[in-house]
Structure formats: structure tokens, C-alpha cells
Amino acid sequence: MNIDQYLDELDDLAENGSKVAFSNKIAIDGKQMKTLLEDIRLSLPTEIAQAKAIVADRNNILVKAKDEAVAATTTAQEKSRALVSAAEDKVRDLAMKTETYCKNKVDEAEARARQIVNTAKEEAAAVKNAADAEAAAMVEASEVVIRARETADTVTKEAQDAAAATVSDAQQQADSIIKDAYRKAEEMVQLAKKTSEEAIAKANKWSEEIRVSASDFSNDVIARVDSAVENALKEIKDAKAYVASVTGNAVSEN
User: Fold this and answer.
1) Spatial separation of the C-alpha atoms in residues 23 and 45, rounded to whole Å
2) Which domain holds residue 33?
């Protein structure tokens, strides 16, 4: 039998004892009580050994729980670092792609602007050459020399004005294309920054959730082990107190 059963028998012995007249004391079977007390004494080392084993198990569980908590925290930190590193790699890759895209767009815009300006210059030169040729042809006619010179001056001026207007228009188109390319490049950079910030924020949030979960798990295990040890020690303490109280009531033997 275990100590609880011996205590139950001792309790029955005390309840069934004869009351001593004119007092609150009772008379019980001394031999039976000694037998039960001896059995209890023999059982106490076992119960104490079990309590020590529970305490030892508690320490082992605490060590294991702490190790698991440390491992969980380490894993969470490693996962957090991996997430942040992946986010940073993604940001760098996106930034490189954005920079390359913007550079290509600006290069294309500048090339197109140069092409427009060159075409305008070629057209202006062609108009001027045609005007010069026409003027020269008119000057060669002796009867209309004066008129030809006037006409040549007019045509030359018109050709120069047309060439200047063409060059100005081409320059405006080139400026507009380059400005639009820079604007689009800036929009791409802002979008890349926003995407990187969101990725890093999400990685940090996952890391914090993993660390909190690991800490809660460790605290729960330690709390349950402490409660189990406390209950076991309380039961042993109550048993010892009960044995002491019953022994104090035994005053005579039948």
C-alpha cells in the first residue's frame, strides 16, 4: 500500500477510537497505531524519493525547456536574418533593374533627341542649299539680276527662319522626351523603395511573432512544471502534518 492508504487507515483508527470521559481525548489501539506509523515511516522515504525524483525531473524539464526556448529563439533570429537578407537582396536586385531600366530609357531619349536635331539640321541645310541654288540660278539671268538678288535674300532668310524653327521644335521635343524619361525613372525608384520597405517590415514582423511564440512556449512549460512540483511537495507536507496530529491524540492503549 502507499502512504495515502496508510493515512486513511490511521484516520479510520482515530475516528473509531473510544472517547475518554470528561475530556476531548480518545483511546485507540496502540499496537495497531504503532504498526500503521511504522508502515508510514517505511513509506515516507519512498515518497520523499519520489518527490526528489519529481524535483530532479522538474530541473531536467526546466533545462530542456530553456534549451528548447534558446533553440527556438536562435531559429527565430536566424529565420529573421534570412528574411531580412532575402528582402535586402530583392531590394538591391530591384534597384539595379530599375537603374538599368532608367538608364536605358534616358539613353533612348537622348538618342532620339539627337536624331531629331540631326534630321532638322539636315532639312534646314537642304532648304538653304536649295534656296542658294535657286538664287544663284536667278542671278545668272542678266535681265532680272536685281530682282533675283532680292528674291534670293528673301528665300535665304525664309530658309534660315524655317531651319531655326525646325531646330527649335526638335530641341523642345528632345527636352520633353528626356524630361519624361527622368520622371518615369524617378517613379520607378520610388516604387522600388516602397516595395523594399514593405518587404523589410514584413520580415521584421515575422521575426517578432516567432520570438514571442518561442518565449510563450518556454514560460508555459516552466509554469506547468513548477505547479506539478509544488503540488507534490504540498501533499508530502500535508501527510507529515496529519501523522503528527494523529500521533498527538493517541493517549492510551487497549
Assistant:
1) 36
2) 3-249
d(CA 13, CA 30): 10
Q: Report the helix count and the strand count for the chain, using DSSP H and E.
A: 3, 2
Residue type, 221: V
152 in Cβ contact with 138 (< 8 Å): yes
For residue range 73-99, what is the model confidence (pLDDT) as tens digits?
899 888 888 988 888 888 888 888 888
| Nearest partner of 221 among 54, 53, 63, judged by Cα | 63
Q: What does pTM read for this prediction?
A: 0.36
Residues near 254 by beta carbon (within 8 Å), at least 6 away in sequence: 18, 27, 28, 29, 30
For residue 96, is it within any domain? Answer: yes
Q: Is the pLDDT of residue 250 over 70?
A: no
Q: Is residue 238 part of a domain?
A: yes
In this model, does residue 11 exceed pLDDT 50? yes
Domain count, the chain: 1
Strand partners of residue 39? none
Q: What region, left, alpha or beta, does residue 22 occupy, with left being phi > 0 and alpha being psi -120 to 50 degrees?
A: left
